[in-house]
Specification:
It is a single chain. The protein is built from six helices and no strands. The chain has 109 residues and is mainly alpha-helical. The longest helix is centred in the N-terminal third of the chain and has 20 residues, at 21-40. The relative contact order is 0.16.
């Protein structure tokens, strides 16, 4: 999965910062959710429109990236932005969540 390495990196960075337990836990939950979705779609995750749609609907997958964007840490923001770009490129973000990402970028830029 394209996002699991990003989520692991985000979790490790959050662990290193110690004050970012919420991000670490959200990243771990997102990895579990992605694995559940992969199992549901039986490994046909790269090209599966259903898989992408399910990722886009999953607040659990998107939450760690939103939290990282809000963290104020340059490293965490950079990690999150790379992942958000991947999600957007694969159309794996709902319209509502796209707005949330854009609103956050406007507020914190």
């Amino acid at each position: 999965n394209l996002l699991q390495p990003d989520l692991r990196a985000l979790g490790q960075e959050a662990r290193a910062r110690r004050k970012q337990d919420e991000i670490k836990e959200a990243a771990e939950r997102a990895i579990v959710k992605l694995r559940e979705l992969e199992e549901l779609h039986r490994g046909n995750t790269e090209a599966s429109e259903a898989y992408i749609r399910d990722v886009a609907r999953s607040k659990e997958v998107l939450r760690p990236f939103l939290l990282a964007l809000e963290s104020g840490s340059e490293r965490m923001v950079a990690l999150a932005m790379g992942s958000v770009q991947k999600l957007l490129a694969h159309r794996a973000v709902s319209l509502t969540d796209r707005r949330a990402f854009l609103d956050h970028l406007r507020v914190h830029s």
